[in-house]
Design brief:
heterodimer; A: 63% helix; B: five-stranded antiparallel sheet
């Protein structure tokens, strides 16, 4: 009599298919792989892993502060420029007013008006030829300041003090 | 707490299990699962990116330019930077013309109407809501009424006219008043602010206004500007390119409020302010010339205006140029001439239509703006004899020493009878006498000796065939007989200045050439051009066109002209202490006379009086010409009408120019003296002081007692001729003696002296021709018949009134 073949190669006799232990083992392995595959790999040295929240916060604050500073300086520059333009406009307006008022003043004191006022209101007369004497001066205009030579010692000290005070602006 | 904790824990476990379940489903899901949803999202993201990308490409590259333009139009505001118009100064830096900012006031009737309707509705609603105890609402005031009332009060405009303009609701632009100054604009702005009226209803537009601080001074030279600020006459027009400058442009990025954002400008082109002009004109001389021309026009009833020119004969710089009557450059539309106004009034009083009146007004306005010295032609008359004489001397066809002429009172040329002004004739004359007596037959002979060809050559060389080139617009050319049509009669009448019509500036320039060594210079008014910082950008140089005559001939002519003024005791142009040369001219306006029908037509001959002078005669610095067109008073000779103007201007003006009088011993002896102060002095002391000064004294009161002088007439400081009598009153209880001033008009010097002295007054003789034997009194300072204290000074002006003088 032949011994029945027990190598389980016949599918009819693949008892492992009916063996739930191996199946369960395979399913567990598969799930494990799936889980590992889905797991987010975190860099070993990442901040979040190491937990440097303070650093992130600080950098963010600094960058934000820098952005605000740039924005503020541009705004301030614009404001100053606007003020300068306004003042320039005011200056131009004032200069214009000055020119206008100067013209009006000149029209009140022009030569015709002066002559008319002098003769009619003040009763003045022009100087007659006989009242004028012309003198020829052969030298050019010259101003001489007469220095007092005999100041003496105390005079020179006094002069030094007064010159110093004048220099200082008193 | 424990229960809550347990519940939370259960909830967390349930959540985790749900996630696990979802994970497991996702792993096993073969259909529309996570991957599918991922794919959808990916496709959506890619699609969205493509749309965004395409639009970016489209708006920044494909249509980029178009959108950039639209963005710029919205964000960028173009701004015209108005250039300031340059100023005009005289030679001494006095401002003659200057610009300033003003505003045009504009209303928008349509906007006012809409705003009024809105306010009325608001008022009606407020009235409906009003109940007893609330603040009274008051009457509703129509917005247009309110605005028009205020504007008419501030701007002095017709309120009814404004209200009528506001009735046109379709109109959004109505100019209330132009060129409004800042104080009024400030009042309008305050009114709008206080009443909450929008600037869309009433607003201002910036403009500029030209101011001429000296009013009428040099108005015909300066010209004026129109409403747009462009020069339309005179220097304002001629140098408009220099004065107006170049407007700038800027493109500013504007924020939401319309404010400019600095440092975001893309383009900025600065305005280049106009250049300023420094003229050769002297304000003081100009004033003297205008003042005396005005006096001449009024005294001699000059109908067609008078003009004068003062020029530096060596450089061509015009020191003064005037036309009288003039106009106010600040208000050029106002007609000022007396005769023009009379013409206008006559037309208005007649049945003339509005159109005819407007036309006449426009014509008269144009006429008054014209600078007579450069635009109007006249026959130069005897002044031209200097040109004929200089030409003949240069050609050596005549000689000062040897030439002689005969004047029977007329000359016959090609059958034509040409009279001398002296119908009885001058007899035999030397060249000096011929020109001094202004003998026409003598100059006909000189012209014939010169010949038509040479005469035409010199006529052209002296600049009479072309404009002088002065830097003013509207200079006229001359009307003259061309050389190929110069027959003997034309030559004869041209020789004494009665054929060719020239401008006063041409005559002045020719006289300059005669006296300055023979050089024909180009007259000019502008000396320097300055930029807005005061730097000199251009300087006008003396331009000598050519030498017409030699230095020798010029020196001879100077001597001749000086002798004309000094001969026979002096002429009306003579001034003690100065060497002045000159020539008068009296021309018949023969063309107008003939056009009016001549003697047969009952026409009356009219004249042009002129006088040309140079000073000082030994080294001429200035030349002056005065011309009065159609004097209708009692005198019309150049020597009587124009020469006194020259004399008066020189008297005041030469010193201003630094040309001082040098008196001969004879002149010094005849000079007036100043009355010394003798009040409070005893009679003996007073007498000796007065005698030492050269005066006689007459005491009223007891001269032997101890009384002192309480009153002296004339008062101390007065300048009166030596030999005059000073009346001194001794004591207090004396009535001052009164006399009646006699009428000495028309008397000779000695006659006038006797009359005035006998009446108890002192005479002071004025007028350069006082020593001329034919001088007669034309004017006295105290009117005849006036009662005045004896001893007072009566100034009497003597003039000669001859053709030749």
């Amino acid at each position: 009599m032949a011994v029945p073949h027990r190598d389980n190669t016949n599918l009819a006799y693949d008892l492992s298919r009916f063996d739930s232990t191996a199946r369960e083992q395979r399913e567990r392995e598969r799930a494990e792989e799936e889980k590992q595959r889905r797991q987010i790999r975190i860099a070993p040295h990442s901040v979040s892993k190491t937990g440097s929240v303070f650093k992130i916060f600080s950098v963010t604050v600094v960058l934000f502060a820098a952005l605000c500073a740039v924005n503020w300086s541009s705004t301030a520059k614009d404001d100053m420029a606007r003020k300068v333009t306004q003042q320039q406009a005011l200056l131009e307006s004032a200069q214009d007013d000055n020119a206008l008022l100067q013209s009006k003043l000149d029209s009140k004191v022009n030569i015709s008006y002066i002559e008319q006022y002098a003769t009619e209101n003040l009763g003045m007369e022009k100087v007659a030829s006989a009242q004028k004497k012309y003198i020829s001066v052969n030298t050019e205009d010259l101003i001489e300041v007469d220095e007092d030579a005999s100041e003496g010692f105390f005079g020179s000290i006094k002069k030094w003090f007064s010159d110093t005070l004048e220099f200082l602006g008193f | 707490m424990a229960k809550i904790g347990q519940r939370l824990k259960k909830g967390a476990v349930r959540f985790v299990n749900w996630v696990k379940k979802k994970d497991a489903e996702a792993v096993n899901d073969k259909g529309w699962g996570m991957r599918g949803r991922q794919a959808v999202i990916l496709v959506a993201a890619v699609g969205f990116s493509c749309v965004v990308g395409y639009n970016l490409l489209k708006y920044t590259v494909l249509e980029g330019e178009q959108w950039r333009v639209l963005a710029n139009n919205q964000q960028m505001r173009p701004l015209t930077i108005k250039a300031s118009r340059g100023s005009i100064y005289d030679a001494n830096g006095t401002v003659l013309a200057q610009s300033s900012t003003v505003w045009d006031v504009i209303i928008a009737p349509g906007t006012i109407y809409n705003a009024n309707e809105a306010l009325r509705d608001e008022y009606a609603k407020a009235k409906d809501k009003w109940k007893e105890g609330d603040e009274p609402l008051g009457e509703y005031v129509d917005l247009a009424e309110k605005i028009c009332s205020e504007l008419s009060e501030i701007l002095d405009v017709d309120k009814q006219k404004l209200l009528k303009a506001c009735e046109d609701h379709d109109n959004m632009y109505y100019i209330v008043k132009r060129k409004v100054e800042k104080p009024e604009v400030t009042l309008i702005t305050s009114f709008l602010k206080e009443n909450g009226i929008s600037s869309d209803c009433v607003y201002t537009q910036e403009s500029s206004k030209r101011y001429y601080p000296n009013g009428t001074l040099a108005a015909s030279i300066l010209g004026f500007t129109n409403y747009e600020g462009e020069g339309v006459y005179g220097l304002e027009a001629y140098y408009d390119d220099y004065l107006s400058g170049t407007d700038g442009k800027a493109f500013y990025t504007q924020d939401g409020s319309g404010n400019g954002v600095e440092y975001a400008n893309d383009y900025y082109y600065s305005a280049v302010d106009g250049y300023s002009l420094v003229l050769t004109l002297d304000e003081v001389l100009q004033h003297y010339l205008e003042k005396n021309l005005e006096l001449c026009v009024s005294q001699h009833e000059v109908v067609n205006r008078a003009c004068g020119i003062i020029m530096n004969c060596n450089t061509g710089a015009v020191l003064a140029m005037a036309t009288s009557p003039g106009f106010d450059a600040n208000n050029p539309s106002e007609i000022t001439g007396k005769y023009d106004l009379e013409k206008l009034e006559t037309l208005k009083a007649s049945d003339a239509s509005e159109e005819e009146i407007d036309e006449l007004e426009a014509t008269l306005r144009e006429k008054q703006w014209k600078n007579k010295a450069i635009t109007e032609l006249y026959y130069p008359g005897s002044v031209f004899k200097t040109v004929t004489c200089a030409s003949a001397l240069e050609e050596k066809v005549i000689s000062l020493e040897s030439s002689s002429f005969n004047c029977p009172g007329y000359a016959i040329v090609a059958g034509q009878h040409i009279s001398c002004w002296n119908h009885s004739g001058h007899g035999t004359l030397t060249l000096q006498e011929a020109i001094t007596k202004s003998c026409n037959p003598s100059f006909i002979a000189i012209g014939q000796a010169l010949g038509a060809e040479k005469f035409s050559d010199y006529f052209e060389a002296f600049g009479f065939t072309e404009p002088t080139g002065i830097d003013l617009p509207g200079e006229s050319g001359s009307l003259y007989v061309p050389r190929d049509r110069m027959g003997p009669v034309e030559l004869a009448s041209s020789s004494f200045g009665q054929t060719n019509k020239v401008t006063p500036i041409q005559v002045t320039t020719a006289i300059c050439a005669i006296v300055n060594g023979g050089y024909l210079v180009t007259p000019h008014l502008v000396d320097k051009v300055l930029d807005s910082d005061g730097n000199v950008v251009e300087t006008k140089q003396t331009e000598i066109k050519r030498q017409v005559i030699s230095e020798e001939t010029s020196a001879t002519m100077r001597g001749i002209m000086e002798n004309i003024v000094n001969t026979n005791g002096g002429s009306n142009a003579y001034i003690s202490g100065y060497r002045i040369g000159g020539k008068s001219g009296t021309t018949e306006r023969i063309d107008e006379y003939n056009a009016a029908g001549g003697a047969a037509g009952g026409a009356k001959m009219t004249y042009v009086s002129s006088f040309a002078a140079m000073a000082p005669a030994d080294d001429p610095q200035i030349v002056m010409l005065v011309m009065a067109d159609t004097p209708t008073g009692t005198q019309y000779y150049g020597s009587a009408v124009a020469a006194p103007v020259v004399s008066a201007v020189f008297k005041e003006g030469l010193e201003h120019l630094g040309i001082y009088p040098t008196y001969t011993a004879e002149e010094q002896a005849k000079m007036d003296a100043t009355v010394p102060y003798v009040l409070g002095s005893k009679s003996m002391n007073a007498e000796s002081s007065l005698s030492a000064a050269g005066f006689d004294v007459r005491f009223v009161g007891d001269a032997t007692g101890s009384a002192t002088v309480t009153t002296q007439i004339p008062s101390s400081g007065s300048t009166i001729p030596k030999g005059s009598t000073v009346v001194c009153y001794l004591g207090n209880d004396l009535d001052l003696e009164v006399g009646v001033v006699p009428d000495v008009t028309g008397m000779t010097v000695s006659q006038a002296n006797n009359e005035i002295t006998n009446a108890g007054f002192n005479i002071k003789i004025e007028g350069g021709a006082a020593e001329n034997s034919s001088a007669l009194a034309v004017e006295q300072s105290l009117a005849p018949g006036t009662e005045a204290y004896k001893g007072n000074v009566v100034e009497v002006t003597f003039q000669v009134n001859n053709y030749s003088d």
